Amino acid sequence: TVNFLYFCDLFFKAEVEETLKRIQAHKGVIGTIVVNAEGIPIRTTLDNSTTVQYAGLLHQLTMKARSTVRDIDPQNDLTFLRIRSKKHEIMVAPDKEYLLIVIQNPCE
């Protein structure tokens, strides 16, 4: 059973890496960050200071948005968050244990 679980873990990690590579290859994508439930970045294509800034702030914003959605309807949950500014478009896909953050140029 341990070998099977280990294999599944490796397969999952490889699948995640492949998905992140596909996202990063899209035209206009500046960077991707994967953040754990505590708001700690665990995978990034950006420099350290940018990663820490985006991860911390977007984790807080996503948790607040999720809480707001649930306050409006306890049976509902946040599935996606998109922020568009003059300079960037930030997309956040929250999961139970992780957040996927993608930063891209808004005109792409």
Quick summary:
One of its GO terms (molecular function) is dynein intermediate chain binding. The protein contains two helices and five strands.
Report on the structure:
This protein is an alpha+beta fold and 108 residues long. It has a single domain, classed as 2-Layer Sandwich (Beta-Lactamase). Helices cover 45% and strands 27% of the residues. The protein has a five-stranded antiparallel β-sheet, sandwiched between helices. The chain is globular, with a radius of gyration of 15 Å. The mean pLDDT is 88.
Architecture blueprint of SSEs:
Blueprint: H1 2-25, E1 29-36, E2 41-44, H2 48-72, E3 81-84, E4 89-94, E5 98-104
Antiparallel strand pairs: 1-2, 1-5, 3-4, 4-5
Q: SSE order in H/E notation?
A: HEEHEEE
CATH class: Alpha Beta
CATH architecture identity: 2-Layer Sandwich
Decide which structural class fits the backbone.
Answer: alpha+beta
Beta content: 25-35%
Radius of gyration: 15 Å
pLDDT average, as an integer?
A: 88
- Across the major sheet, the strand order is 2-1-5-4-3
What overall geometry do the principal axes of the alpha carbons give?
globular
Family: Belongs to the GAMAD family.
InterPro entries: DYNLRB1/2 (IPR016561), Roadblock/LAMTOR2_dom (IPR004942)
Pfam family, one: Robl_LC7
GO molecular function: dynein intermediate chain binding
Could you name the key traits of this structure?
Beta-Lactamase, 108 residues, alpha+beta, globular
